[in-house]
Amino acid sequence: MPELRLRINGEDHKADVAPQVSLLDVLREHLWLTGTKKGCDQGACGACTVLVDGRRIVSCLALAVQYEGREITTIEGVDHPLQEAFVRHDGLQCGYCTPGQICSAIGMLSEHAAGAPSAATEALAPEALTPAEIRERMSGNICRCGAYNGIAEAIQEVAS
Amino acid sequence: MKTFNYLRATDVDVALQRIAVEPGARFLGGGTNLVDLMREGIEAPETLIDITRLPLDGIEELPDGGLRIGALVRNSDLAAHPVVRGRYPFLSQAILLGATGQIRNMATVGGNLLQRTRCLYFYDEASACNKREPGAGCAAREGFNRGNAVLGTSDACVATHPSDMAVALAAIDAVVEVRSSRGTRHIPLTEFHLLPGTTPHLESQLESDELITAVELPPLPVAAHSYYRKVRDRASYAFALVSVAAALDFGADGRIADVRLALGGVATKPWRARTAEQLLLGAAASEDSFATAAAAELAAAVPLPGNAFKIDLACRTVVAVLRRLTTERSGS
Amino acid sequence: MTTHAKTPVDPAPSVPVGGAVGRPVDRRDGHAKVTGAARFSAEHHYPDLTYATMVHATIARGTITAIDTAAAVAVPGVVAVLTHLNAPRIRPVRKGNIVRDLGPSVSGTEVNYLNTDQVFWDGQPIAVVVAQTSVAANEAAPLVTVTYREQQARVDFAAEQHNATPAKGDLTFAGTKKKGDAEAALATAQVSVDLRYTTPGLQHNTIEPHATIAVWSGDHLTVHDTTQSTDASHKYLAWRFGVPAAQVRVRAEFVGGAFGGKFAVWPGTVIAAMAAKAVGRPVRLALSRKAVSRAAGGRTASTNRIALGATRDGRLTALIQDSITHVGSVGGLLEATSSPARHLYGAKNMLTRQNLVEMDLLPNTWLRAPGEAIGSFVLESAMDELAYELAMDPIDLRMRNEPATDPTSGKKFSQRMLREAFEAGAERFGWADRNPSPRSMRDGEWLVGMGAATAYHPVLRLVADVKVRLSNDGTALVQCGFHEMGMAAATVQAQIAADALGIAYEKVRVEYGDSDLPPGPMAGNSNQTATVATSVLAACAELTRKVTALARKTGTTGQEPAATLRAAHTPFLEASVGSTSRLGSLRSQGRFLATFLKDQRWSKAARGAQFCEVRVNADTGELRISRWLGMFDVGHIINPKTAASQLRGSIVMGIGMAMSEQTLVDPRNGRTMSAGLDSYYLPVHADIPPIDVAWLNEPDKSMPLGIIGLGEVGMTGVAAAIANAVYHATGRRIRDLPISLDKTL
Ligand SMILES: Cc1cc2nc3c(=O)[nH]c(=O)nc-3n(C[C@H](O)[C@H](O)[C@H](O)COP(=O)(O)OP(=O)(O)OC[C@H]3O[C@@H](n4cnc5c(N)ncnc54)[C@H](O)[C@@H]3O)c2cc1C
Ligand code: FES
Ligand code: FES
């Protein structure tokens, strides 16, 4: 099986994996970058969110081979004011959804900055990042502990 | 997941040649549906041809005012495109109301059209499903069928087509461009998906060696006054129970001069509501005319115990959307 | 992506010595969690780790007649496939006495997995594949083919209800409670309602799925497990595998949510340890989301009759609640749905009865506020209905029935400030602005409604062993095998210990989540904070006495403790509560009984007033929550920041229960069809408005530091408040959860 080369958090990594291995499993089980979480393995929770070339994706539905040569950022490579904001606003409890929430929020903020609309956007292009916009745009990240208020506050603070 | 071969295509012709000689091969777009189904053991291709690096990710304005969308354009890019936002707002809305930011960043236009049903029994390897295994029976009919269809169903299958984007595209009369080593075909979106009939495992007109290369939108002035409404079991991140894509325009006499209407969540394929459109065309805009048209469209609906409410819900949602569009028009 | 430069953060306002308790300190493990450094159970690295995937039965009841593993074994990378034919034999589940030993009570089911050919529910694990990689294990597991001899199974709750029989109950909860003649009083009541409410099964669906890494070294077993009961579960595993408890270590430093779902030992834990023994290598068994739904229990469904009789001026004369819930044939829990009805209102005549039906389903288990989550929906909806019958404000009706003593036991309340909670809450929420008639408030296409309900959760205290060490460098170490599943447990205990020792908060380190530590309580029933605090305070008091004595000797009285230790050339001093010796364990049981009996002198509970505003779409029936206030009577708050999060999180879970959550068990065959997060709808960001929570902060004088547990009370009353608000908005009573849009149309 050909060796897979992945660029993660600015470093080159090699892994000997079959093509059916997801990016998530390569991270967690082959490279032991376990900060990225598996909550459902079916695209239905967002815990596995990572950034690829700055865009957020769910790594559980991503075959690792498909992402060779792309710039992958996981929570281990994130150094962002959101992280402290999450702690200060208590935007976490068990912490299992948290890396996904943070990666997702980083991707979301740059989507918004680039003018991408959401289902909550009435105008042609988004204006301010209102609480309703944050909640809609972050709906791909489920938090069973229900830390939603703190998460939204943390994002709001960093966005403004 | 079963083992498979992985190939990365960088050239359309090479990809087409390859699939022509490998009947067990499948194209891989964003993978958001195919990878999930492979993990569940529902799909087991021998080879995956990764098409995401093919140069089919552009959106071009056509001289006639239409739009040509490459099959590999990501859902989020299509939804954010200024021409789509301005001229076909309901297409943008439909996409943004589907899945999540992460999934829309991965999902491609071609893959979205070909995503498979979310019927609980299709997804459960231990349950009977004619779509998965022709002749096995349908466990959904007498099971949990809240998400299942009331329109276009057959004895064999009541599975809903889950795409939101495709519902808006059906209303737009989009055309799907497909290529194989045998040539290029153009298929109207409203004919692209098949009704289940006795062969629910056959879902579209696409042949196994064909690649979707683009979707073309005709120029459609009425689409500038359009709206997509999705009704579901939570405020976001859920498939539609009912969705309505509608565009509406009025003549100088105040009567409906042009209308497009399509339904999602209730049918086995993206459902163009032509019966309702015909009744609405030339009618005065009123709660009554909207309700009559909606009821006529849903007259053919066949309810199941778990989804009978969708008939009324679909009618109400159609009325609400048309009312909204009417108010917007008279306000502007 | 562009990485952002680290912006300087305000240094945390330093906590003054003696002033840690009551301060909104950030949770201590926050940094580890936001950087990805926190390692959860499935994430521990062992060089020769193998990966396991279970195979689940696809019938509800029967016998395995043949099982063919050849195709699975042939998958490259597969190390072993274990079934009942070749798995190591282990001891059967022991039945036991919960007071003596929690071990037996943590058994999720009574089944001796992979040691029997019997199938008791659809989804029961019947084989396990162990492989070099998870990919190989997952590829091989579906290739195991099984033949069954099927038996008739009882899987349709609606159809089985007529087989329900009165439940016996136990030490803490009686199956039936009677006072006066409730049926007669109902028949003659001036005003009455007689109603039926149902609730569906629910799943915990913690975002971290259950996972175990099991490592044998000789006959010592180490288990990294997703558990909220390390002590009980290490004893349990020791018994099952026939080794002394001291040789089994269960670790759970970080648990990704639990809510009762990780209290019992479910099949995955046992099978991982079994597989590790069989292959002689560490095994990781991380359940898929579907596997969690098939192999870890959730909340029972319920059907409830509730009848209330009252005088015209709103005094309750009769209160009847008859509930039917289910258990599995191989285990399960009596969900105490009548708990709120027994303790909230002063009805003259009362009859509350629990009925159980046994079914061939995965046994049900604790899920946040077991009993009260359902019971408060039933009771508080019915109170609202009665209020409308009486043309009375629903809060007023409740206040007219505030009892002076516990309505069932007659015991004194250790504290009860429900009236104050409703008063303060109504004021803050603007309840007075509500026009009481249904369908009277509207905002465009949205019908607006306001609802209220009482929150109630009883107090339980268990025992904890604790060791506290004070070192001459000024630091302290608190050790206790308690659990951190998101409650900020270590943060709160550090606050308590810091003040008790008179040292700075930052100087206190806390070790937890490990059965090698002095045993802590299981984290359930909202007991943990008060239970551990009791022992932390006792240990710190003893330590303080030792320091004081030493200070007198060394003439350092009045100086900080570390100065005393240095002056005495003592590196550290320790104090402990409890020990794991034989005698120590006996003493712990004694302490438990003493605490239990002491606590039994009062009727103790956390309470609160829930208020919400909802919007129901007039066209589509869609329900949105637009405003929330929970005003709580939950004793003294140690950490307002993390306490607010617990209460909010509970309310969010209640919103899910009210609006969208539902376990779908196919009544034809007992198969769980809501096995994924795409079919079991948890609330998402867009469903949750800003949630206002507040508390009276009045200490419960019968509890250490006045603490009342608050991890569950927030969930109670939520579904009723929403249902009541939906009635107010639409004029429709929804008596069957969830309140899906087809019901409000
Ligand atoms: C949790 C979850 C929630 C979702 N919610 C919604 C929702 O609310 N609304 C909605 O509309 N969708 C929803 N989706 C579905 C999502 O939109 C689809 O999965 C996605 O659009 C598929 O695109 P893809 O590129 O990832 O397809 P893939 O998974 O890559 O492919 C899907 C199929 O299309 C074929 N294919 C792909 N591209 C081509 C091509 N160019 N030519 C020929 N064949 C091709 C593949 O072979 C495969 O059979 C959801 C998905 C998930 C996981
Ligand atoms: S693990 Fe990827 S979305 Fe849940
Ligand atoms: S913090 Fe526990 S799931 Fe979000």
Automatic annotation (TrEMBL), chain A:
Keyword rRNA-binding applies: no
Please state every residue range assigned to the domain named 2Fe-2S ferredoxin-type: 2-78
Pfam families according to UniProt = Fer2, Fer2_2
What InterPro entries does this protein's entry cite? 2Fe-2S-bd (IPR002888), 2Fe-2S-bd_dom_sf (IPR036884), 2Fe-2S_ferredoxin-like_sf (IPR036010), 2Fe-2S_ferredoxin-type (IPR001041), 2Fe2S_fd_BS (IPR006058), Aldehyde_Oxdr_Iron-Sulfur (IPR052914), Beta-grasp_dom_sf (IPR012675)
Q: Which keywords fit this entry according to its UniProt record?
A: Iron, Metal-binding, Oxidoreductase
Q: Which SUPFAM superfamilies match?
A: 2Fe-2S ferredoxin-like, CO dehydrogenase ISP C-domain like
* Protein name per the record: Carbon-monoxide dehydrogenase small subunit
* Species for this entry: Phytohabitans aurantiacus
Organism lineage:
Bacteria, Bacillati, Actinomycetota, Actinomycetes, Micromonosporales
UniProtKB/TrEMBL annotation, chain B:
Q: Where are the transmembrane segments?
A: none
According to the entry, every stretch annotated as the FAD-binding PCMH-type domain falls at: 1-222
InterPro entries tied to this protein: CO_DH_flav_C, CO_DH_flav_C_dom_sf, Diverse_Substr_Oxidored, FAD-bd_PCMH, FAD-bd_PCMH-like_sf, FAD-bd_PCMH_sub1, FAD-bd_PCMH_sub2, Mopterin_DH_FAD-bd
Q: Which UniProt keywords apply?
A: Oxidoreductase
Quick one: signal sequence residues? none
> In its keyword annotation, does this UniProt entry include Oxidoreductase?
yes
Protein known as: Carbon-monoxide dehydrogenase medium subunit
* Source species: Phytohabitans aurantiacus
UniProtKB/TrEMBL annotation, chain C:
The reply on keyword Oxidoreductase is: yes
Q: Which InterPro entries does the entry link to?
A: Ald_Oxase/Xan_DH_a/b, Ald_Oxase/Xan_DH_a/b_sf, Ald_Oxase/xanthine_DH-like, AldOxase/xan_DH_MoCoBD1, AldOxase/xan_DH_MoCoBD2, AldOxase/xan_DH_Mopterin-bd_sf
Aldehyde oxidase/xanthine dehydrogenase a/b hammerhead domain location, by residue?
Answer: 35-152
UniProt keyword annotations, A-Z: Molybdenum, Oxidoreductase
Region (Disordered) residue ranges read 1-29
Statement: the UniProt record of this protein carries the keyword Transcription regulation: no
Q: What is this protein called?
A: Carbon-monoxide dehydrogenase large subunit
- Organism in which the protein naturally occurs: Phytohabitans aurantiacus
Lineage here is:
Bacteria, Bacillati, Actinomycetota, Actinomycetes, Micromonosporales
